[in-house]
Amino acid sequence: MSLFETVAIALWAMLPAYVPNNAAVLAGGGRPIDAGRTWRGKRVLGDGKTWRGTAVGILAGTALAVALNAVEPAASTALGVELPTFPLVAGLALAAGAMTGDIAASFLKRRTGRERGAAFPGLDQLDFVVFALLFAFLAAPAWATEVFTLSALAVVVVVTPLLHVVTNAIAYALGLKDEPW
Q1: In terms of Cα–Cα distance, which of 154, 167, 62 is closest to 124?
Q2: Other residues' Cβ atoms within 10 Å of the Cβ of residue 46
């Protein structure tokens, strides 16, 4: 398999995980998941993690997987690459995993004394990837093993931080985020 094919498959397969956090930002506001609770003197998650944002993120990622299935034949032909289709459970797992990873990162940020929006290099870029892949491998192991080969996983780990930086800078420039990371 060529590098182009590997990159195309890896990025296509990760799209349902890439979209949820962005959709959650757009949904914005609502009741915080932690309901304002503290643990050891600090908020458990903070106001940025809401039920509405989480639900919208999971729905957006899952809906994207369904939409990608619909356009896969045309996209595969256009790219000259056999792109994977998503079993519904895989799309849901990628989206739910991405949101869970972001929530887990928020928990770790609070435990390390970082405030909402504070940078945490490495964690900020890969938290959602780790959980999205974990959920996908648990929910649809045969599909995930076939799609996320070692070379595809390497692409995801290298490209995702770059995409994260670029999309966050765009969201910041558009006034959708308070900080560019």
Answers
A1: 167
A2: 20
Q: What's the gap between Cα 161 and its chain centre?
A: 11
Q: Burial of 145 by CB count in 10 Å (0-12 exposed, 13-18 middle, 19+ buried)? A: exposed
Rounded Cα distance between 47 and 55, Å, is: 15
Burial (0-12, 13-18, 19+ Cβ within 10 Å), 120: middle
Beta partners for 38?
Answer: 43
Q: What residues contact residue 97 under an 8 Å CB cut-off, 6+ apart?
A: 17, 128, 131, 132, 133, 134, 135, 136
| Token pair for 8 | 């195309």
Instruction: Give Cβ neighbours of residue 166 (< 8 Å, ≥ 6 apart).
Output: none
Mean pLDDT lowest among 23-27, 66-70, 90-94: 23-27
Cα separation of 91 and 20, whole Å? Answer: 11
Domain chopping of the chain, boundaries: 3-173
How much of the chain exceeds pLDDT 70, in percent?
94
| Those residues with Cβ within 8 angstroms of residue 131's Cβ, 6 or more apart along the chain or in another chain | 97, 98, 100, 101, 104
Q: What is the pLDDT of residue 123?
A: 65
Q: Is the pTM of this model over 0.85?
A: yes
